[in-house]
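To whoever is on call:

I kicked off a structure prediction for a single chain this morning and the downstream step that reads the tokens threw a length-mismatch warning. I double-checked the sequence; it's 226 residues and nothing unusual in it as far as I can see. Pasting both halves so you can look.
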Amino acid sequence: MKAGTLLPMACSAQPQAHPWPRRGGRPTLAEAAQLDREVRECALRLFLAHGYERTSMDAIAREAGTTKASLYARFASKDELFNSVLEWATQRKDWPLREPPPPDLDDLEGALTAIADAGLRRALHPAMVQLGRIAVAHASRLPESAWTQAVLSWPRQEMVIELLERHAATGAIVADDPEILAEHFLGMVAGVPARLASLGIARDRAAQDKRTQVAVRLFVRGLRPD
């Protein structure tokens, strides 16, 4: 496993005692929050390992060390749990890779390259590719999962928007529609490689780096004033 790569926590195959003392009545907020995280971690691991159809609520409850009744008290159905897990996983900054520090926004081309590289590493991570395949396969029945995949890059998109607005304010570039431009940029540098990866098509690092450089230069050239 590469340094910095984070996979879901290991879940025991049998229910286990929780570290907190059990009392009568409702769990504390801390207990409930930890159980919610354990459920999502274990569900994510099972969905990635076995797919959506072959992952049951019984298995998730067993792996998380809780009961099916407790699981259904939190999620009305497997569909609801899957959508919750998908959104939770894709919005994390520590999964499947830790997000790098923000780039220097004063350097337009350098920042775009750094954002592209970070987005590409995340999009091409095997766990993210597999999760995307599952989401796409069930998009017609689970429309919320398709929506989550569509906004997967939103925090990165906000960074590109801020970058474009900053340089447009100085007159260095023209960016009348920064949101649309950011969407197109991320589609070029990460969206296309991610789609190819979902089909089992992978380029070597040198070839992918070359395509990222070409995309960044093309994008910046199109923003320069006439």
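Update from on-call: the warning came from a stale cache, not from the record. Cleared it. Sanity check on the structure: The chain has ten helices and no strands.
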